[in-house]
Amino acid sequence: MSAIEVKRLVEPGFHAVGGVPGLHLRINDGDGRSWILRSTVNGKRRDIGLGGFPDVSLAAAREAARGTREQIRSGVDPVEKRKEARRQLVLDQKMGLTMAETIEQYLTSGKLDALSNVKHQAQWRSTLETYAVPLIGKKRLVDVDVADIKAVLDPIWQSKHETATRVRSRLEAVLSWASVNELRTGENPARWKGNLKELMPSFKTAAIKDHQPALRVSDAPAWYSALTQREGTAARALQFLIMTAARSGEIRKAEWSEIHFEEQMWIVPAARMKMRREHRVPLSQPALALLKDLPKMAGTDLIFPSRQLKPMSDMTIAAVMKRMHGSEVANGQLGWIDPVSKRPSVPHGLRSTFRDWVAEKTDYPGDLAEFALAHKVGSAVERAYRRSDMLAKRTKMMTDWAAYLRSQ
Q1: Strands 13-16 and 265-268
Q2: What φ, ψ does residue 70 adopt, rounded to 5°?
Q3: How far apart are CA 360 and CA 19, in angstroms?
Q4: Which of 146, 198, 204, 321 can pair with 189 through a Cys bridge, CB separation 3.0 to 4.6 Å?
Q5: Residues forming a β-bridge with 45
Q6: Taking the CA of residue 109 as centre, how many other CA atoms within 13 Å lie in the half-sphere pointing to its CB?
Q7: Domains of the chain, CATH where assigned
Q8: pTM above 0.90, yes or no
Q9: pLDDT, tens digit (0-9, with 9 covering 90-100), for 57-102
Q10: What's the distance, Cα to Cα, between the start and end of the chain in Å?
């Protein structure tokens, strides 16, 4: 056929155009037209596409058909060759994917939809774009290794440890997703156990370098007096916190069912303790009086609930101390500061204030204070043989502590 004759074909089906054995123009019902080379490859019938008409002319189709038949004669399967070429193209694209592009694909893949909290979704993106992308964003995904992950974590491991742990966990999730989607192979360089755990310093080592700002022992009575003048649930929670030397989380989630008024005791369940052991806290008369003056809110068993009847945030209690410090500064005073770091004291630092009071103002043994703080005391062997938590002695100590706070 000539080019004009080919152009005039309208009947749907395969039309042999001649010039090269097996070359046909296929016309679909919708008038779509394409070149097909019908041939036999390794005993199998093949319809090999050579492009659409008129984009590929008759002459070009015949030239392509000759080249394809030459490949078949030399033992090459043109269809499989094309598939392999496409696979290689995809592989090359994957090999060139950067870490920043991978993070973006992960964030937009729907993985974050499982997080119902929009704030948490935003934090995921923010932490990765702030700490990971600037350092390893331009690196090819397949080349990211343990040293790269460590380079991301090292600058914030000591100063922003909680943020660093979240960045590591999120990088591990991104890289795991990439492996499942065949974007990379090999071990996950952000894995913690048996990997980064052996390279990064422990959190306890980091914590030693930066103590929480504590209130000066001699300032505690005046500070406590100022605290009692403040209104609100957070102020009462902070008041209960310093009288019991408890952690903020233990106070914020404390429930009325844990208070035993007759025994004058607060029993904190193991699930809420850092050491995962039940902790008995003797309550002084001022602490009991504080509790008895508090209203019991309907719809919750929490002692210090938020307005939504949920545990208040740690920042809510910290804000009380921040405002107290600000009031002092506004009146021309130094404020409630740590004597060593000169930084404003914070709720967790009040535990150190209690510990300093025991050491500086009393004859109580240090172990007794450590029991009150729910710290590990003695070696593993000593703890195994010790059956008492010295409750009676701690009751006297906490009574004296409350009296000292109220001495102003």
Answers
A1: unpaired
A2: -65, -40
A3: 106
A4: 146
A5: 40
A6: 13
A7: 3-82 (3.30.160.390), 99-208 (1.10.150.130), 217-405 (1.10.443.10)
A8: no
A9: 888 989 888 888 888 787 777 777 777 767 666 655 556 688 998 8
A10: 111
